[in-house]
Structure formats: structure tokens, C-alpha cells
Batch of 2 targets.
Target 1
Amino acid sequence: MNNEEKIICPLCNDAVDKLLYRFHTESEQVILEKIKLHNPAWANEDGICSRCLDYFNTEILLEQKMLPEIGPYFPVKSADDFIILPTPIRVNTNPKYSGKGVTICFIDSGFYLHPDLVQNKNRIKKIVDITNPKTTTKYFSQPHNASWHGTMTSVVGAGDGYLSNGLYKGIASDASLVLLKVMNEDGKITTENITKALQWVKSNHSKYDIRLVNMSLGDDATGLWANSEVDLLAEELIAKGITIVAAAGNDDKASIKPPANSPNVIAVGGWDDNNCLNGKENKLYHSSYGKTDDELYKPELIANAIWIAAPILPGTPAQEAAVALYELHQCSDPELQEKICTLCVKAGISYNETEKKDVTFIRQQIADRIQQCKYISPHYMHVDGTSFAAPIVTAVIAQLLEINPHLTPAQIRTILFSTAKRLPGLPAEQQGYGIIHPGKAIIKTLQNFFSMKQHTSPFINKRKKAIEFYIQNPCASHISLAGSFNHWAHDALLMEPTKNGLWKIEIPMLPKGTYQYKFFVDDKIWLEDIDNPYRQPDGLNGFNSLLMIEN
């Protein structure tokens, strides 16, 4: 595109591909007034670029008390011309709950005692190098190559935003942490060390009150979960009341690997909101997905997996470069020409003597370098991957456990799966039950509608020669069971309401075979059986649950 073809935004004067002109004046009156307040000469027909629109959306949210005070510390529009919103705002969770009283164990490559985890209050209960138990705490106060990934995941989920004056804090910013390093000196994460980490949790979960494990990593092996030591240990921990969340992976052509392939581990894929606060161009991230060797569809949930604010590892050349770039970015023109000589090497900027005198050229070099490195401040950058979607889900679960510490892993799954929302028009097998919805999950937890079922659904009662189905829905007026066993009749098998919104039906034992079924709620909504991990895409952006009768 040459200069003559570029479109200039009338507000920020940036060259953009297109401007937005069409506004729903009634529903967007507030934002139109905000734009005109700051730009009295602007009119609707002048248009606005999408980034400026996001900026004013953020301003409105601030006034609605949904964002921390901007002050001088809130780089809403960063130098790389992207708006990176704090994670709690992106996922629209309730800031009242912050994982207080909940301990999360992160099993990852390695860790650094990051200020966002220890400065205001040291929330790390224990940090262990599984590959070398003799490693002292002093090791973790220095940056290492292995430290990057685990530091990012733990801060994304549970950092308190110390280095950003509270801006880039995680959802579980008050949670306590146990950190287990599993990358060895050769830079490898082995099955043996992942297994040792899970065994450590098994031996120490009571001592440190661990209720949650986040695993933004995976084994290299594939196959049946019952043949994987990693999966077997994961299921054993879940049976002890510990919820495990695992990243699905970032290759949409790859298979799901342990522990994400395990039946009761919550596997998390990703979605992309296009870096828009109220993004309408939603799309799926290139997460791993599909059917495991055990015929289970994974992932079960998706969460934001791109445009996520994460820490730059302190004490590294990358962090020095970020500090130098932002110092140069904030300089006046005379200061810039003076400081560029001393900071150019750290900043990673090169120029000749002629270019040095061209301030516009140097500023473009700075902006290009910031964007290339994905920096958003001297201490943070934006990252992508299901490695960061997983701790978002983990942190939301910490909120639920703060509200009700007695929740079981099965109840947590039910809450999250029943409140998630699928992206319309996109394959269900890539998103499971859909995007995590923290606000609805919190409300459902506060309602405390939990019946202690004797069995999960469906339950094959051999003694009674019957099959029992259950669904929890306190708001329904009537629910029916329909499936291939009754030719999908909508109102033939009516379920009975019991206590706390639990519905139940018992049908006679069926002949040997595999059957598909769903629940039909209030004559308008089809729902799969959340208790049942076996399912099949229904061809309508959803799943049918599978009932398998062996004999």
C-alpha cells in the first residue's frame, strides 16, 4: 500500500486500513459523547479507527469503576500501538474474589522470585527444583533460561501487579503458591520429572493445602491414559480433591498429550478476541484439539490465549532492552538525540550518523523494536499460547474455591462447563463447552445449588437393571431425556425434579450398543450431559453425549 492509498484516522492520525463509520446511536451514545468530549470537532461521518474506539471503550470502563485508576501508570495505548488490557478485565471476572485462602501449585519449566509474587507479600509457600532437590532458594532469585515460562504462567494467573502499580495483576492475585521446577540442566522436560512433580504433590498436598495444580506443559507420550504414569497420577490427585488444569497445546494438527488427555483433567484450548474489548471478530486460537485414544474429545474449555500481559524476566538482556526502549520513547527530541548514543546497544537499535540526526527515523526504529519484541512497558510484554489460557482457568477456579472451599473437582467441572459459552459458527470439537465465563461461574457458586448425587450421570444400575440420568438446572420448569434409543422424542421421557435443582430419570436397561442422547430443557434448549466425558459432535455446533452398554 503506498502513501496515497493510506487512510488516516482523524483522531490519532495513524495510517489504517479502514475507518468505522456506522454507529448504533442509541446503544453507543455514551461512547459517541466521550469521543466528542475529547475531540469537539469530530463528527460521526468523520469515522474512527478500531484502536481509538477501543481506547474510548476503556475510558468508559474506567468511569464505571471496572478498571484501576489510569493515572501516570496505566499505558492503555502502548508504544507499539496495541491496547493490552489487564487479564481480569479481558475475561470480565469479579474483582471481589482473588483466590484468597487458596493454594495453587504450578508445575512448569522453572521459576523466578518475581516481585509480583513476593514484593508486597511473599505468597510462595514452597519452591522446589524437582530435577535437583538440593537447589536452594537463592537459585530462584537469579534469572535462568528455564525461569521464563514458569514465571510467566504463575504471574499471569496469580501475580499482584507490583511492577505495574497493580495494573497487570492476575485473577488470583491473593492466592498462595507452590512452585515446582521440572526442566533439567539440558533444557528438557522429561516424563520422569513430570511424574516426580506429581508424586511430590501427592506426598505434600495436605501439608501445603494444595487445591489446584496448573500444568502449562505436557508429556511427549501418546496413547491410552491408563498406560500413562502422568495421567494415572493426575487422576489419583483428582480423586483426593485436587483440581488439575492443563494446557491443550498450540498445534492444531497435533494430538492431545498427558496430562491434558486424562478424563478428569480440565484441558484448556484458546481463543482470540482480536485484541478488542468487546470483540466481534472472535476466532479460535490454533490450539491442539480432537479425540484422544480413549475416544474423549479435548479440550473441554477455551480461554484467552493471545494478547496476554506477562512479565519480562528481570535481570535479562530482554528486560534491559525494554527499560532502554521505554526510556528513549519518553524522551523529548533533544534528549533523544543525546541518549540514543548510550542506550542504542541495550535497546537493540542500529543507525548511521546521518540517521542519528533524523528524530522521526529514530522514533520509528524505537516503535518498530517495541512492537517486534511485544513489549508493553519496561517490565511486561504480551504473549500468546494455551500455556497462558490454562492459568486463567486455574485462577477462576481459585475464585470459586475462595467462595466455597468444599467444592469437589467434579462440582468445579460442572460449574465451569455449564456456564461456558461456545463461539457460534465454529467447530464444537475445537472449543469443548466453550469460552470460560467467570462471572456466571461465580454466581452459580454463590447460589450453592449442589446436590450430593450418589452417582455421576449416566449410572448403569446393574442390580436394578436400569440406567439413571441426572442434570442440575434449578431454573428449568421441565426437562426431558431424548436420544437414539427413543428416536429423539422430545417429551416422552420426562425427568423428575428433586432437591436443589437436581433432575433425575431412570429408564430400563438397553441392549448392548452405543447410543446418543441429550437433555431437552423447557422445550427450547438442548444440553449435553456434563457429567459424561464421552460425546460426539452433533453437526450443529454442539455435542451429543454417548451411552455405551457393553453387555
Target 2
Amino acid sequence: MSNRLVHATSPYLLQHADNPVDWWQWEPAAFEEARKRNVPVFLSVGYSACHWCHVLAHESFEDEATAAYMNEHFVNVKVDREERPDVDAVYMEAVQAATGQGGWPMSVFMTPDGEPFYFGTYFPPEPRHGMPSFRQVLEGVQSAWSSRREEVGEVAGKITRDLSARQLEHGTGELPGEEELAQALLGLTREYDPVSGWLGGGNTKFPPSMVIEFLLRHHARTKSEGALEMAEGICEAMLRSSLYDQLGGGFHRYVLRQQVDGSLVPHFEKMLYDNALLCRVYAHLWRSTGSESARRIALETADFMVRELRTAEGGFASALDADSEDADGKHVEGAYYVWTPAQLREVLGEEDAVFAAELFGVTEEGTFEEGSSVLQLPAEGDTDQARAADVRARLLAARELRARPGRDDKVVAAWNGLAIAALAETGAYFGRPDLIERATEAADLLVRLHMGPVARLVRTSKDGRAGTHAGVLEDYGDVAEGFLALAAVTGEGTWLEFAGFLTDIVLQHFTGEGGQLYDTADDAEQLIRRPQDPTDSATPAGWTAAAGALLSYAAYTGSEPHRTAAEGALGVVKALGPRAPRFIGWGLAVAEALLDGPREVAVAGPVGGALHRTALLGQAPGAVVAAGETAGSEFPLLAERPMLGGAPTAYVCRHFVCDVPTTDPEELARALKGAGG
């Protein structure tokens, strides 16, 4: 038996195509069906790599009796939050307002008009820890709908009115200045633990990628040693912990501190967006410090993305699952990644197994479940690096023989934009043209498959087939960011033109009064509220991602409308930066670029030459780089800036007003070190 999801392009929805639940996708027909049958809508939102989504599905959605009850009393709608972030955002806001918390799977009961009236996340199959069972929830909602319809309607109407009336504080239009950025740095300092290297309280530690970018840019501009020390400390803590895959490279989603012994255990799913952002973070850390470990992590993470996430069409898949089959054929979390001392001995022999156990913190008691251990790197010290590399390679080869985690093969436009930027810059910094080529192929796919004739982005694709859902603001901002990074590295002005198409759409369809931005276009599907959120989650907020792309495009072209829109959008950073710096890190990073200019570097000379490479390695926050022949160039920044005396020449400018040009790479490097140039 299969349901309507069999025709979906989302791997998450396809995982539910054989459920006995009669699932619908999010579409007008589903709500029309609910009106016709006079029943409520049950909305279930999750994503492919979500562990508890799989648990709920196995316990309840695969149960024939539960499914029969759902089919009789509800119209059941399944949504992939990665495919429809707008639907997820609107109803998650309602869940958090009503319950004080959120998460996935998200379970929402609503009227046929889409107005929510009861919420939750995961519900167990029987009452547990004070939680009702899923069947009890279904029966309670059905009873209320049948016997207290008027009351349900009043609750739903009030929730919807409250959501619609919420006003976002997006600033007064004033730009963030030195005071706000200094206050943001002070706030981060208070939340930073210099002993552990982690940022923020609580037991769950997510990688603060956007905050690190702000710290690196702030150091470059102001020479704040405290900002650099925090960035280095956080990056060191992440690379040594089990957040990082010590064998295959790449980062897991987060780590959770155990109550008993304080050890950090990862949630093992690997997301494209985390790895793209962290690849770029470590590449930028190397650019600032020359750290060999930062170089290693950047390259290993880039290689992981290409090896394990690249699709046949040249894009990058969304995620690897946390779960996989263990040696007994059971589907469990982390099975692919954890080790016991006995497994080490089987692969390495006694002597090297002892060495590996000490290197990676593998114990007889185990640091995870059932005597297994997660791999970490407690301290390198005087470790024999050649021996460590040999052990890593042998363990990785053995791990390749295990059952692999599932892969969510859908290509998300925004996350591919992040990957394009990371791979292009990492390839340029470390002499890896293959990484630049992979970035270019992913960009080609986005243009070919995700962009229409008027540059309106489609959010996702799978197996070379474009999805049907419109791109949201983060898609436009992150893809434009990727195209601009590719333009800087390759010297191909076509990528600047494509970024211009996308930023023009932001101006036309996503921008509201006073510089505020919306997550959906003005002509997108109308939900109960038009979502807008300037704060970062696991990725840069669409609001600040778009602001950064608008600012960079203006720096390349001199466009005043794009510059004005970027400045208008950054008013929110003045309002939120001092109070909540951890949640607006990318906005703070863009503000650093604004305060620095950003600087515009025109290199009249060969792409890949010494001056071009020096320009790319410059630390000036958010600097843009155009390289190539000046005659006929597609970069306005290169116009009328020729080579001097026939030698490659660099011009460092702000607002198209340039300093004295130079032909000396060392002089250019000094001009781009930050702190005002």
C-alpha cells in the first residue's frame, strides 16, 4: 500500500509513502478535503535526518490501528521542513508561543482554514514521563472537535490573531556602529568558557559558525585579541570533540553533555549546511592565523562534502542520517561511527589498538551506549603523527565496510550556495582547483535547474528534477553569496551577473517598509502569517544573508539601491546585536563589512596570479575581489583600472574611490590586513 506521498520529490516524504496513514502533501486540496469532511487537519513536520521523526513514524505512523484512526478523523498532511521552511516557521512560532519550546517532529492540529489550536512535538505510543500517548492526543482532539467546536474555533482564531499582531523589532533604520559591536563582543565574552572552549550555557552545544565569522572579522578590523582568542578556542574545542568525525572528516549536528560523567556525545546526523559553514570558518581561521590544524579541518571537511554529499548532477545532498544498521542488523543511532576496544583490536591488532584507544578516548566502559565509544581527540601532545594518520586510514577503511547511514539526496538551493562559497574559497586558498571545479558544477546546477528565466529560484531539486516550491529569502541570499565568492575566485563576471539577478528579486519581492525583509516573496503562497525572522538558527538568517549579498553586490557594481537596501536591513543588528549576539552572528559579520567599507579590490592582471591570490587572502572584513583583464570585463570594479607599465596592478578602493595602486603583492597584503587598511 502507498499513499499520495509516492509522487513527492522529498526523501523525507518518500520515507512515509508506504505508511498506512493516508498522507497528503501541503496543498490546497488537502484543506478542501478537510472542509468537505468537516474534520481537523493534522500537520506533521520533520526532515529526513531527524532521529525522533523516525521514532514517531515507526511507533505510530506505521501502526495500522493508529493510522486507521487518523484516516477516519483527520486529514493528515506531511511536510518536509527543509522543503517548506515557510510552513515550518509559521507553525513553529505558534508551537513555541503556546508551549515555550519547539522541535521536530512538530505536530500541529488545525482547522480547515489552517488556524492552529493544539500543538506538540514527539508523542510516545503510550503515556510516558508525564506525556500523553499519541493515541490519547488524537482522541482528545477529536473529542474537542466534535463536542466543543465553537470553543476550538475561538482558540484557533485567537492564536492566529495573536500571531498576526506580532510586531518584529527591526530597528529604527539607524546603522549598527562601534558601540553595538563592542557590546556584542562583550556579551559573547560573558558566555564564553575559556576552559572548555565552548560558547553558551546548557548541555547542548551547536557549532556557532556565524558567531565565529563575526569574531574573525572583528579581530581583522579592530585587532581585538579577545575576539581572535575566542574564535580559536571555539574552533579548537569543536575539532577535538566528538562533534568532528575524527576518521572521515566533517561535523555532526551537535553534541550533548552527559549528566553522569560530563562527556560530550554527538547527535550523529551530518548536515550540508553545518559542514559548508564550518569548512569556510576553518579556512578563514587559517587565513587569519596560519593554523595548520585549521587548514587540515577545512580541507578534510571540503573533501567530506565532495566524497559523501555530492550528487550525480553535481549538486550537494542535504544530509546523512544519524541512524544506520549495527552488526546485528538493528537500526540505531551512531552505529556507523562508534567503536569498542575489541573492534579496534580486530582492525589494528593489539599494539596499534592500544595506541588508537588512547588517541581517540576509547574506553572499556564506553563513552556512548552498550560499551561503545565516540571518537574524540582529547590531546595531541607529542603524538606520532605518521602513526596516527596510518591508524586513521585503516579504521576509516574498515568503517567503509559497515552499513552506511541513509542520505537525503534533495538539493536545497540555500545550502548549496553555502557549499559553493566554502569550496571556492578553500580551493583558492590551498591550491585545490578540483574544489573550485566542484563549486562551479554546483553553481551550474543551480542556474540550470533552480533558476527560471526571470531568476526566480526553486527551493529544491532531486535526481535532476526541480521541485515545485518557491525559494525563500535564505535561498536568494545564500545562493547570491555563493555566486559572488565564485566570481571572486574564478574572475568570471557571469557569476556577478547571476548574483545581480537574485539580489534584484530581493529588492522587488522580499523588501518591506523601513528596510525590513520577509522570508517569503510578496507573491508567494499566503499563510496565516508572512514569516520574517532576522535571527540565525543553524544557518544565517535569510534577512542578514540577503543583507550581506546586497552589500557585496553594491561593492562590486557601485549600485546605490543595493547599498541602501543593505543598510536598511542592518538596522535590526543595531537593535538585537548588543542583546542577543549569539543569535545574530551573521548580521554582526555583515555589519563589520559595512564599517570597513567594505573594501573593493580590483586586480588588473591574470586570474590566479600573485596579486589575485594576495587579494583573496586579505583579511579586510567582507572585501570583494575582481580580477582579470580590464578591457571588456564584466566587473564594473575593473573598468578604467589598467595595468601600470604592463605589470599586474591592484587597486584598493572604498565606494569606487581608490588608494594609490600597487604592483607589489606584499604592499597589497599590508593594505588588506584590516584595522582600517
